[in-house]
Specification:
Layout lengths: L10 E2 L2 E3 L2 E3 L6 E5 L6 E6 L3 H18 L4 H17 L1 H12 L3 H20 L7 E6 L2 E9 L2 E5 L7 H12 L3 E5 L6 H13 L6 E3 L4 H9 L3 E7 L2 H13 L3 E5 L4 E5 L5 H13 L9 E7 L3 H12 L13 H16 L3 E4 L19 E6 L14 E7 L2 H9 L3 E2 L1 E5 L3 H10 L4 E4 L15 E2 L2 E2 L6 H7 L1 E9 L11
Parallel strand pairs: 1-5, 8-9, 8-11, 9-10, 11-12, 13-14, 13-19, 14-17, 16-17, 19-20
Antiparallel strand pairs: 2-3, 4-5, 6-7, 7-23, 12-22, 15-16, 18-21
The protein binds nicotinamide-adenine-dinucleotide (NAD).
Nicotinamide-adenine-dinucleotide binds next to α7.
């Protein structure tokens, strides 16, 4: 039985500019390769400043009239887009899977999480997001949210549908024109989203897509008409993009990489912990910024660790766990595992050389791997490996575990597995992370709660979804009004 459906013909995606599908001015294109087979499944234009300039100009023109459309009317178009996404959910989930290496079910989960953000954006029409107050006789002050104009989103390979949807549904509903630069590794889901945005009825230029890599990103970051930029990807690029945009006084929120810790204490409930740890490190083959990749075992947890190893050893490569994004990443991760072994850690489960699922022999497969008895001097405890690898480090006390967790430069999430409320609160109170999990391996907040980390996992202020998204893609305008002079006017009147 096939795990996913690969297209018969490669899909030739184009840029979406001013409502038209366009090639790059240079004519350059690059291939899109499926991690399942390492075969070409599509291609994209490789865009540069010559493509970004016209896209931003068209978006700027579109933003002028789009901001004048009342919020409730703008929302109607998003209702249509939501219906179209749900009608096409299998197609979109399959595309997300074949280009990112996820399983079909994981592809679908990402689309559904995107739909949840759409639903949050749909609810904005019913929220009073302004205030008014008579501050002096005859004088009122009013605040209201106004769109920024042209805004852009740069997204990573690991969530082809969800991470773009973290951004554009809220941004366009608030009245901005949005330009998406999807990862060049997973542009096909974005291409389908563009087709559905056009079909939903967004006016030309309100939603645009620019394909490509670094050059396109830098042109967007440097364009003074791009008022705000949301970035999600690795820490080094997040920092560089943040500095570029804020250096010209633009607004930026750039989410970066992560190394998330699971603190497991002896009173942790066994089944919940084994499930939570294994699903967290193998989900999306470990290619999640919220994957818990470092387990800090407090005290003697040998029995529990044996069960984690046993459960992970039974994960079926293909049906239950997908592929690594590309050959180079698979080799890098395998090298990281070897380095840990060379440095004296014990490889309890070795996923290297595992048999590929039948029919997908050419893909980038790596089965779950568990590195035990690691120490803080080893790279596997500090570096984001971004693969299905769990590293275990053992400590004697909870305070040691917290100190170790706090020493990481990243700040996305920490999870604690315990059956005691006071232990959970003790960890949460000391966590320097944006997100905390209690008995849950992937503590991603559901809407309307916002997603966002801290430290080197986030450059800028605020969060990316929920109320954080409203802050990111709008500004608060203050209007002070005086209609008539009062007989007892004071200095303000
Ligand atoms: P990446 O940084 O390589 O790429 C992200 C985006 O930046 C892509 O669109 C890419 O084209 C562009 N890009 C790449 N190099 C660039 C450069 N030198 N200059 C300008 N733009 C550049 O990240 P990735 O490999 O696609 O994604 C994996 C990373 O993303 C991991 O580190 C993961 O933790 C992180 N991530 C973080 C979150 C979060 O919410 N914090 C969510 C998902 C992924």
């Amino acid at each position: 039985m096939s795990l996913v459906e690969l297209p018969n013909e490669p899909i030739a995606a184009k840029n979406l500019v001013a409502g038209e599908w366009r090639d790059a001015a240079s004519g350059d294109r690059m291939d899109v390769v499926s991690p399942y087979t390492n075969t070409v499944i599509g291609s994209i234009p490789v865009s540069a400043a010559a493509d970004v300039g016209p896209a931003v100009a068209a978006a700027k023109e579109a933003a002028e009239s789009w901001r004048a459309v009342p919020l409730k009317e703008r929302t109607q178009t998003l209702f249509r887009f939501r219906e179209l996404v749900l009608e096409n959910i299998d197609r979109m989930s399959n595309l997300a899977a074949i280009e990112s290496g996820k399983t079909f079910a994981e592809g679908k989960a990402g689309v559904l999480k995107g739909v949840e953000i759409i639903e949050y954006a749909l609810s904005l029409q019913n929220l009073d997001i302004g205030t008014t107050l008579e501050v002096s006789r005859g004088v009122t002050c009013e605040t209201r949210r106004v769109p920024l104009g042209v805004v852009a989103g740069i997204t990573p390979f690991n969530f082809p549908a969800m991470v773009p949807m973290w951004q554009y549904p809220i941004a366009v509903t608030l009245g901005n024109a949005f330009i998406l630069k999807p990862s060049e590794k997973v542009p096909l889901t974005a291409h389908l989203s563009g087709e559905l945005m056009v079909e939903a009825g967004y006016p030309p230029g309100v939603f645009s897509i620019i394909h490509g890599g670094r050059e396109a990103v830098e042109a967007l970051a440097d364009n003074p008409d791009v008022e705000a930029l949301g970035f999600v990807g690795s820490t080094a690029v997040a920092r560089a993009v943040y500095e570029r945009v804020t250096g010209r006084n633009g607004r930026a929120l750039c989410l970066g990489g992560a190394k998330n810790h699971l603190l497991v204490v002896p009173d942790a409930e066994e089944d919940v912990t084994v499930d939570g740890v294994v699903s967290s490190f193998i989900g999306c083959a470990g290619q999640r910024c919220m994957a818990a990749s470092l387990m800090v075992a407090v005290g003697d947890l040998d029995d529990l660790i044996d069960k984690i190893v046993e459960r992970a050893s039974k994960v079926a490569l293909g049906p239950e766990m997908g592929a690594i994004i590309d050959e180079a990443s698979r080799k890098r991760i395998e090298g990281d595992i070897q380095k840990a072994a060379d440095q004296g850690a014990k490889i309890r489960l070795d996923g290297r050389g595992a048999a590929a699922p039948a029919g997908y022999e050419g893909g980038n497969w790596l089965a779950p791997t568990i590195i035990d008895h690691a120490s803080m001097e080893m790279e596997c405890t500090t570096k984001e490996l971004f693969g299905p690898v769990l590293t275990i480090i053992r400590v004697a006390t909870l305070d040691e575990a917290i100190a170790l967790q706090s020493s990481t430069p990243y700040g996305n999430a920490v999870s604690v597995f315990t059956s005691r409320g006071d232990v959970a609160r003790y960890v949460a109170d000391r966590a320097p992370t944006g997100m905390v999990g209690v008995n849950i391996g992937v503590p991603v907040p559901r809407e309307p709660f916002s997603f966002g980390g801290a430290k080197a996992s986030r450059f800028g202020q605020g969060d990316m979804t929920g109320a954080g998204g409203v802050e990111l893609w709008s500004r608060v305008q203050k209007i002070t009004t005086k209609w008539s002079l009062q007989p007892d006017a004071n200095w303000m009147s």
